[in-house]
Amino acid sequence: MEVRPGYKLTEVGVIPEEWASIRLGKCARFRTGPFGTALHKSDYTNDGIPVVNPMHIVDGGIEPTRTMTITEQAANNLAEFRLKAGEIVIGRRGDMGRCAVVQTLQTGWLCGTGSMIIRCENGADAEFLQRVLSSPQAISAIEDASVGTTMINLNQGTLAGLKIQLPPLPEQRAIATALSDADALLGGLERLIAKKRDLKQAAMQQLLTGQTRLPGFSGEWEVKKLGDVVEIRKGQLITEKTVVFGEIPVIAGGKKPAYFHNESNRTGKTITVSASGASAGYVALFDCPIFASDCSTISEGKSYSIEFVFFQMQLKQDAIYRAQTGGAQPHIHAVDLAPIEIGCPELAEQTAIATVLSDMDAELAALEARRDKTRALKQGMMQALLTGRIRLAEGI
Asked: Which residues contact 223 (CB under 8 A, 6 or more apart)?
């Protein structure tokens, strides 16, 4: 394998010459959480000292639950397991790679039975090590070291023997800062998306019930049954004998194609309502030729706005789910949808309302695409920085 100048081949792959390849035990100490027998039922309380088990370590952070806490006295009795700022807490069971750096406000929380504390030393930065330990490479190495066990249970020996790459401390900190900045950008996008979703839901509630009217519109709305406004049609069954694979999406439930057929049976804009299975009742809108299979459909027409009907059905999504029949194998047919009532203004107002809500959907879709692209870029950036393929000048 040819290695470019300034790099070397090590047990953890190709890394810069200034980086070390060492066992984690050389730059960290470990403390396994208390045995289950050390925590008694009487120790637990609501809104006490949080106990951090693997389920509480989410996306590099700690998210406690108010019901999995213990009293202050019980925590003091287990003082050696209380967390300190700058330590890493890592899950020992289940999905490997769950780890987080303890923040100042989390000082004093308790490392749970299913977790382990990592205390950095000898020139190792906790924020950097957390990134390394949650990387696919480290997770794969831990899983390989646990081959033959029915359930991976990370122990101190496995963790101490884990080979990792270790840049000089300034570069570790620069890498950790860059990745934290990327996380902050992603977090900001997630919060903005959540806010926009809430705004859209509020707008739907106001506009689709007539509580708020758009400028230029007045007059009473009629309440009509869905079956009196649109034609609800049943999809067409495709069998293994009749399917001919092609480019037309086959909609058999949900919003993603089950597979692709060579012809369509619905064109233009089509509302689909999943007919059976776990997604029975799910409402979606397609603006392309489709082959409607295990679903009911509503096609666009001249007397109503199909987008307006779609948003009305979205608003009534819970009522549609409640219309399920069939018990263990739920299903919804056209006859179940027809009685659902929706408010109907004149066509011009339907179109105006649908335009406002469609614009909000488009804005949401653009933000979600930006978030997904940012997430992908961050993953590539993380791989490049943690392997030294890309260097940060301020860290060198």
From this structure: 341, 342, 343, 344
The torsion region of residue 177 among left (phi > 0), alpha (psi -120 to 50) and beta comes to alpha
Residues with Cβ within 8 Å of 240's Cβ and at least 6 positions away in sequence, in order, are: none
pLDDT tens profile 96-153:
889 999 999 999 999 999 999 999 999 999 999 999 999 999 999 888 876 555 566 7
Give residue 97's region: left, alpha or beta (phi > 0; psi -120 to 50): left
How far is the C-alpha of 72 from the C-alpha of 49, rounded, in Å? 6
Distance separating alpha carbons of residues 42 and 369, to the nearest angstrom: 48
Query: Which amino acid, one-letter code, is at 282?
Result: Y
d(CA 354, CA 390): 47
pTM, two decimals, is 0.82
Count the helices and strands in the chain (H runs, E runs): 10, 23
**234's tokens:** 């049943």
